[in-house]
Amino acid sequence: PVFAQLQNAITKKRKTRISYNSFFENKIIDLELSPYHLMYNHRAWYVVGFSGLHNSIRTFKLNRIKELQTLDKCFLDSENFDLQDYLGRAWSMIPEGRIYNVKLRFLPMVAENVIEVQWHSTQTVKRNSDGSAVVEFRVDGLGEITWWILGYGDQVQVLAPKELRNKVMQAAKNAIK
Fold first, then answer.
1. 73, 72, 55, 6: which is closest to 35 by C-alpha?
2. I need a labelling partner for 25 at 20 to 30 A (CA). Which of 33, 39, 113, 128 fits?
3. Where are the alpha helices (DSSP H) in the chain?
4. What CA–CA distances, in Å, run from 101 to 88, 95, 154?
5. pLDDT tens digits, one per residue of 32-74
6. Which helix (H) or strand (E) is 29 found in, with range?
7. How far, CA to CA in Å, does 58 sit from each of 13, 38, 49, 53, 76?
8. pTM (global) more than 0.85
9. Which residues contact 175 (CB under 8 A, 6 or more apart)?
């Protein structure tokens, strides 16, 4: 029902009011949303639109929307909204506003598995004679790629940037605690 209601609101360019269980704010927030686009990513549906509460374009996971009401107010801004421009070089779907040159070394046990997939449009690969591979990306933000890297455990080494190396190291330390 949420998907269908949002799809209708997008088509008719109607604002919505949502109650949303925010992961980042750790509480339910109420906001007025001008929904621009529905997208499927990582086994879930999301709506991208202008949040009156945040005064910016934001992404909301549909299954976290607790209440949804279509309002009798129209919005006009979505004509100039381009999802690809918005996502830019984000690792997946959350651009952070800063581009990083990421350089990772994958050990032989997982190297072939990693390089057979095109993870990002900027991906470059260098195979090493020992079976490892160095993979590089230019990504907007470090948050999303950090979680992806952690999934490879001790089979990946962060070569650059230092900020990413520190984020991965801190997450690993927190996991040990």
1. 6
2. 39
3. 2-12, 83-87, 108-115, 143-150, 162-176
4. 15, 14, 21
5. 999 999 999 878 999 999 999 999 889 999 999 999 999 999 9
6. strand 27-41
7. 17, 12, 6, 10, 17
8. no
9. none
